[in-house]
Amino acid sequence: MAAALAAGNSVVAKPAEQTPLIAAEAIRLLHGAGVPKTALHLMPGDGEAGAALTADPRVAGVAFTGSTEVARLINRALAAKDGPIVPLIAETGGINAMIVDATALPSR
Predict the structure, then answer these.
(1) Which of 28, 56, 62, 82 gets the highest tally of CB atoms within 10 A of its CB?
(2) Rounded to two decimals, what is the model's pTM?
(3) Taking the C-alpha atoms of 5, 42, 97 and 91 in order, what is their torsion angle to the nearest 10 degrees?
(4) pLDDT at 58 over 90
């Protein structure tokens, strides 16, 4: 999202259906930091919502993190669209990690 916004694009963020609350918080923080609400939108939902976004003729690019299976579906949907080629950036490696270091937490 950040790269697309920095390049001057509008973004519709469609998080995984399991993560709508953290996505909403991230969007709230970005709006609070000055990203215009007209440039960054949140669209929670399931795969059908994502498919509707992908099929929309106004979508000029897709950045996706998730399964290889869904990346292939997105790729096929984008390839089937009339008009200019829509780029897809997909991260499907499945090696994302979250590291939590308790030493950085305030003492209680």
Answers:
(1) 62
(2) 0.78
(3) -60
(4) yes
